[in-house]
Write a structure and sequence with these properties.
455 residues; UDP-N-acetylmuramoyl-L-alanine:D-glutamate ligase; Protein-Tyrosine Phosphatase, Chain A; 2 domains; eight-stranded mixed sheet; 41% helix
């Protein structure tokens, strides 16, 4: 493809993104799937042409979905993967065989879909939302490909999420915590009830280890719809893990038996937990269990060794090491800080933090404080970005004024953090690092600024 053709495709993709973003924002949900169901009905139910694995939870959804995708492809299946949000380009959300759809496919598929969106809009009180329209686009692309199986991450919640049109036979629920409380409920039980909605009659529910309050609601739903249940710590889990160069070495207990010497090139106990959930989901998909024994161990090893998780404690440059991480709530920050201490040995670590409104900002900062020498607070480009001055005031309360630097622009914040990381009494740079965190938007924008990847 010539440069001119690529530029034209990029422009068409950007036009589509603008049209989609002109719809009701994805951070909105309502107790109705009428619009997405009407869209899929006029499209001929494309989501019924392939099998699906559905993933929800509060933290770890995207990493788990990526692992499931990698495992399925290693076993020779053609896959689609739909996750959110994206780091740099909207096409990252819709993945075919491990690669984001091309700008051309994205734009052409939308051109075919748009008349149907307008048809549904005309018959509804509200236009289809951004997330509903994008979900319809993804499900249609997967049918056109065609794929054998689609791994689909919930946008928010579960019961009323647009993706819950799938009624998937495999429902994966990663750890549940307090997030999006303005939409999903103020207690773990309320949030778990909403997320449990992806467990449908006769499904297999793969449940990560949960707080008791959340676990009770998930198990209640599974019992009500007579779903099979596999629980981390009982039917599957992490038997052993040890540090390894570039990641960790795992022994996983699957539904069909133990899998030893599994290398995972990601850091942190939470990623090992995600791996256990992913493996159990794929075993359930293939019908594996105690009677059948493990699925092919060598294939499992090869798949996990190939896993990547962009924006999840991801090194994007060295000297000093800069890590970008999409953690945006206290539970995520706890996992990040633990993984930092386990996988990295920084003598001096500077944080760059920009968050969104409505998050438990003080809680996240308190968790970060022991891990950081200094913090640079900033603001990302999201319409929901927390004002930098408000973030700075909270940071001063937690870190003290002398450890807080304020840079309203994210590019300036990154430069300031690198300078601070380079400062040391002996002038030695080795062992210094920068952690950029607080939001997927922050991680994505920092990643683009530092790598130049604007796809």
């Amino acid at each position: 493809m010539t440069g001119t053709a690529r530029d034209a495709d990029r422009e068409r993709r950007q036009e589509v993104e603008a049209r989609l973003l002109g719809r009701w924002g994805e951070a909105k949900i309502g107790p109705s799937r009428d619009r997405i169901e009407k869209l899929l009905d006029v499209l001929g139910e494309p989501q019924r042409s392939y099998r699906t694995i559905h993933v929800t939870g509060t933290n770890g959804k995207t990493s788990t979905a990526r692992m499931i995708d990698e495992l399925l492809r290693a076993f020779g299946l053609r896959t689609g993967r739909y996750t959110s949000p994206h780091l740099s380009s909207m096409t990252e959300r819709i993945v075919l065989d491990g690669e984001p759809v091309s700008d051309r496919v994205f734009a052409e598929a939308y051109a075919e879909l748009e008349p149907y969106l307008e048809l549904v809009d005309a018959g509804a009180d509200l236009r289809m939302t951004f997330f509903e329209a994008l979900t319809g686009l993804a499900l249609a692309i997967f049918a056109d490909a065609p794929v054998d199986v689609a791994v689909v991450e919930v946008g928010m919640g579960g019961e009323w999420d647009a993706t819950n049109v799938l009624q998937s036979p495999i429902a994966v629920i990663t750890p549940i915590g307090l997030d999006h409380t303005e939409y999903l409920g103020e207690t773990l039980a309320e949030i778990a009830t909403e997320k449990a909605g992806i467990i449908h009659p006769g499904a297999s529910a793969i449940l990560a280890s949960q707080p008791a309050e959340a676990a009770a609601e998930l198990l209640r739903r599974a019992a009500d719809v007579q779903a099979a249940v596999a629980r981390e710590g009982l039917e599957f889990g992490v038997l052993d893990r040890s540090l390894a160069v570039g990641g960790q070495l795992l022994t996983l207990q699957g539904l069909g038996g133990a899998y030893e010497q599994v290398f995972l090139p990601l850091h942190g106990a939470y990623q090992a937990q995600n791996a256990a959930c992913a493996l159990a989901a794929v075993e359930a998909f293939f019908g594996a269990g105690a009677q059948s024994g493990p699925i092919d161990v060598e294939t499992v090893r090869a798949a996990f060794a190939a896993v990547t998780s962009p924006g999840r404690l991801e090194p994007v440059r060295s000297a000093p090491t800069v890590l970008v991480d999409a953690s945006h709530n206290p539970a995520g920050m706890i996992a990040t800080v633990q993984a930092l201490g386990e996988g990295f040995d920084f003598r001096r670590l500077i944080g760059v933090v920009a968050m969104l409104e409505g998050k438990d900002v003080a809680g996240a900062l308190e968790i970060l404080e022991p891990a950081l020498d200094e913090i640079v607070v900033s603001q990302n480009s999201s319409p929901r970005a927390l004002d930098v001055d408000e973030l700075a005031a909270l940071a001063v309360e937690v870190f003290g004024e002398d450890r807080v630097t304020v840079e309203p622009r994210l590019d300036d914040a990154l430069e300031a953090a690198v300078r601070l990381a380079e400062e040391s009494a002996d002038g030695v740079l080795s062992g210094s690092g920068v952690l950029v965190t607080g939001s997927v938007v922050t991680a994505g924008e920092a990643r683009t600024l530092l790598t130049g990847n604007r796809r």
